[in-house]
Design a protein that fits this description.
It contains 13 helices and 16 strands. Pfam families: Peripla_BP_2.
């Protein structure tokens, strides 16, 4: 009798462990098909509620409920912005937004009513440029002076704006009753965190599968890059953009800091910190002091700029022309489409790795960066 009791107990325990194992396996990465889990981004979130309702928290901690047609917003979210049904006339307020959408498929651009950072023939993203030439996507002016009347006439039913334009445009959008989402991807602290904003756009536009696949593949690619540079020497690097009589440099806690860490570079502003991860201004003298010990200098211009030589970069700061890396021709600059390629940020990181460790990435073709001639 005692043996039977022991045997029965053993069978019961085995069943418990099997069930626990099954439960654990189901729980690991158990996001349902058509859903997305935010794994890396810190400035936004996506949650799935009952009845197919999606709760999005944006870069200003504002909540938005995406409510399917025929459903009602749940109780407890009285302060949340509510979007009923799918948005079909979207405004994009940043160059980066179109790159996130590109991951979701070309047909998603048919939902874009207008943009603020292009003009006809001046965009690097063909899906935007061709539609602007056809007149289906409008240019609503720069973010500092948007043509809100044109936006209303185009029937804009959802606007994506950058955190840097929030103070300028949010109040007017609210007055006009246009729902908006604040994108703070530029303040993310990791490369994957910035790339994951494809999921933010997918929450409103669809194709969660593509967004999930993109970030999973990027995570694998970055892991391989980091493994390839393990144990190698770490060249000293600085990066920045001449702006308003100073140099705007990325803080150590920014996604640029993460990028330099991934590629095995010693970023000389890694200890620079601010309340919000992103960028900070330093004097020409400070940048020169740091840059004089750097093996590589990165130029990080905003917009679609190209340079015939380093003198064009440092016209207002001749002191920086005396940095050894500048004099010996080891200055690299963004290609014009850099900020319209954040959906491919893992490939951009691979470019940085090939620049910092050329012997370890001999077969890599650098695409998003260009070496600037001395003369």
């Amino acid at each position: 009798m005692k043996k039977r009791a022991v045997l029965a107990l053993a069978i019961m325990l085995s069943a418990v462990f099997v069930l626990a194992g099954c439960s654990s396996a189901a729980g690991a990465g158990s996001t349902k098909k058509g859903e997305m889990e935010v794994q890396y981004a810190q400035k936004m979130n996506i949650e799935y509620l009952d009845d197919g309702i999606v709760l999005v928290t944006d870069g200003k901690d504002r909540q938005t409920l995406i409510v399917p047609e025929g459903k009602e917003a749940p109780d407890g979210y009285e302060e949340a912005q509510v979007i009923s049904g799918a948005a079909e006339h979207i405004f994009l307020g940043s160059t980066t937004h179109s790159s996130y959408i590109r991951v979701l498929g070309d047909d998603m651009f048919d939902k874009v009513a207008g943009v603020s950072t292009y003009d006809v023939g001046k965009g690097q993203i063909e899906q935007i440029d061709s539609r602007m030439q056809a007149g289906t996507i409008k240019f609503f002016g720069k973010n500092a002076a948007l043509d809100f009347e044109a936006m209303m006439a185009a029937g804009v039913d959802l606007a994506f704006i950058s955190y840097s334009d929030y103070d300028t445009n949010a109040k007017k959008l609210e007055e006009l009753g246009i729902p908006y989402i604040v994108d703070s991807s530029g303040l993310e602290t990791t490369v994957l965190g910035r790339m994951e904003y494809t999921k933010l756009f997918a929450a409103f536009m669809g194709n969660a599968e593509a967004a999930n696949e993109q970030i999973d593949n990027a995570a694998k690619n970055l892991k391989e890059i980091k493994k390839a540079v393990e144990g190698l020497d770490q060249p000293k690097v600085v990066g920045g953009m001449i702006y308003d009589g100073q140099v705007s440099v990325r803080t150590g806690g920014s996604y640029f800091g993460d990028m330099y860490n991934i590629v095995g570079a010693d970023y000389l502003y890694k200890d620079l910190d601010t309340a919000e991860p992103g960028s900070s201004k330093v004097t020409f003298e400070d940048f020169y002091a740091k840059g004089s010990t750097a093996d590589i200098v990165f130029n990080e211009p905003m917009g679609k700029k190209t340079y015939a030589n380093v003198g064009e970069i440092y016209t207002t700061s001749p002191l920086l022309l005396e940095m050894p890396a500048v004099k010996t021709g080891n200055v690299w600059s963004f290609q014009p489409d850099w900020f319209q390629s954040v959906d491919k940020l893992d490939q951009i990181v691979a470019d940085y790795a090939a620049i910092v460790h050329p012997d370890a990435f001999k077969d890599h073709e650098i695409k998003y960066m260009v070496k600037v001639p001395v003369q």
